[in-house]
Amino acid sequence: MNDSIRTLTGVGEQLAQLLAKLSIYKASDLLFHLPRGYEDRSRIVPIPELRPGQSALIEAVVQSTEHPSTNSRHSGRTSLLVHLSDGSGRITLRFFQMYPGMKDKFQTGRTLRAFGEVRMGGRGLEMSHPDIQMVSAGAALPPSRLTAIYPTTEGLSQAKLRMLVDQVLKKFPTDLQELLPSTVLPQPYSLRQALREVHQPASDADVSALLSYRHPAQIRLIFEELVAHQASLLSRRYYLQLKKAPVVPMSQTLAPQLLARLPFKPTQAQQRVGQEIGRDLQQAHAMLRLVQGDVGSGKTLVAALAACHVLEAGWQVALMAPTEILAEQHFINFKNWFEPLGVQVAWLAGKQKGKARAAAELSVSTGEAGLVIGTHALFQDSVQFAHLAMVIIDEQHRFGVDQRLALREKGMAGMSPHQLVMTATPIPRTLTMSVYGDLDTSIIDKLPPGRTSITTVAVPFERREEVIARVSANCAQGKQAYWVCTLVEESETLDAKAAEDTYAELSSRLPHLRIGLVHGRMKSEEKQAVMQQFKANELHLLIATTVIEVGVDVPNASLMIIENAERLGLSQLHQLRGRVGRGATASFCVLMYKAPLSDTGVERLSTLRNSTDGFVIAEKDLELRGPGEILGTRQTGLLGFRLVQLQRDDYLLPRAQQVAAQMLKAQPEACDALMNRWLPTAPRYARV
Ligand code: ADP
Ligand code: MG
């Protein structure tokens, strides 16, 4: 069959361009452009059950009509409001355009059915320009089926998309291949049946199953999509492991020396993860390991011990962190740990220029520096390693996969460096499998002993004075505190301004305290100097933006104030709170918010009050915000699912992963075709 999109009736140049925006190039691509929901005209919804944003069918009686003409924004046009009641609630229909006879149609006392999207208007629920049908009260509903709602783009109507899909379904391509072995299908649906049912559900189909995406036809397709995604992740892993990696024996002297100098012993969890890493390093192919551990679980030591093996064998280790502040903290830490043991530590950051930069790069290229620490500046072309054997990436979820892959190119000729990825935001298991399916996972599941609990309170902005008094009293007793200013996420400039204002205000009001300021727009030496002062207990109070979110470790700080806490996501708040509770003093976290809170705002703050377990909080975050938000926009493209919704469909994941692994080995061609079908734009890796 000729699969060109132009063979469809009604598709010209213009429409073809709109379709291309949805990655629809061929007629058969429409088959896999799957509905994100359905219009349900099969049920009359009582008005009190309506929710804004929902499209629904109502049946109600006209109470009155209204004609707000010239004073409206739509002056020049006449508009009509029709007030309805169904006995249990009221709603208003709004029409901006009138046609002759329209007013007569809506006579008081007449019964009608309206289908449309519900909105919250100034005076209550509204529908604009709904589909209307006049009926006699209680008339039977006509047989009706669910109508697909497609993801679309501006200028392309649902009706047009439905019309196009309908054409393709009618002359269903004969070469549509079953790619999954029939034995693995969770449901006895052929691909063809499943697609037809999902696009155009039969009129007797199970409506509630379809609306909740639990219909067998949907499950059949969701499963296939999951298998394709898992196959793509696994093939990336096979590809990465094609190259040889240096075999690294366990450290005999460096690691014991490092441990001997520490004031504490590694926890059992740290030891276990350390052993898992040690085993990986002794393989002749690259380690690909993700270490998850809650804030403060001691990932830095695990990374340092891993580095010992590689350094002792005479190779280099690169450690990359997403922010300069975090990278600097690591640099200071690792310098303190390793330089007394004879290992030179180099520093590389974007802002570094001139001689300092040249000297750093030289020490890296000659191999003089064993450990190289920095931000993504580590990737730059000018940075050449003498013999890089391991890459450690801290706070992975802030980097894209491409960046993770890029560092791999910096290894020794013909070899791939080992990769150790650490994340501080625990990631729900489903997300781990879907995004890091190519990595092995270790979990540091216990915090070091002796941590004090953190008491968390939520306080409205009106009580800010009390909070200031409390900070003042606590700091006067020698405690240290953070005061975090957030205005708008993603706007470092505005945040910096807020922090500067707060710094000025509190400095003048609390003259007896030594107060510091740190934000992302400061020079790195300035930032570093302030952080050092705070760490050395020369400052009582540190006013900061969210730049201190990750990695900052000052055990004496026991009070954390977060302004506008309602603007931040759960995981981010958890990270910030994790800056306290690291020492022996009982710690407090004050979440200051501006009322009124949204429903999710209330839920977020109460989740934090009730739990300090990062995994519990991450699950809740996933539920409230979805995977895109948690992983950051960089990685959402990676997810790019058509039908799958991870929270809903996670029960299919383990099986999908198994099937993907089997297919990669036993049916590589079918597996390739499957990936092309569901992930046509994802990078492809050579098969093994
Ligand atoms: P994170 O996992 O958040 O990166 P860090 O590595 O920064 O945590 O460790 C948090 C704090 O715990 C640091 O002050 C570190 O020195 C300390 N720490 C790490 N391991 C232990 C341990 N086994 N016993 C006691 N303290 C530890
Ligand atoms: Mg850390």
Automatic annotation (TrEMBL):
It catalyses: ATP + H2O = ADP + phosphate + H(+); Couples ATP hydrolysis with the unwinding of duplex DNA by translocating in the 3'-5' direction. Its EC number is 5.6.2.4. It comes from Aquirhabdus parva. Residues 280-444 form the Helicase ATP-binding domain. Residues 477-623 form the Helicase C-terminal domain. This is ATP-dependent DNA helicase RecG. GO terms for molecular function: 3'-5' DNA helicase activity; ATP binding; ATP hydrolysis activity; DNA binding. InterPro entries: ATP-dep_DNA_helicase_RecG (IPR004609), DEAD/DEAH_box_helicase_dom (IPR011545), Helicase_ATP-bd (IPR014001), Helicase_C-like (IPR001650), NA-bd_OB-fold (IPR012340), P-loop_NTPase (IPR027417), RecG/Mfd (IPR047112), RecG_dom3_C (IPR045562). Plays a critical role in recombination and DNA repair. Helps process Holliday junction intermediates to mature products by catalyzing branch migration. Has replication fork regression activity, unwinds stalled or blocked replication forks to make a HJ that can be resolved. Has a DNA unwinding activity characteristic of a DNA helicase with 3'-5' polarity. GO terms for biological process: DNA recombination; DNA repair.
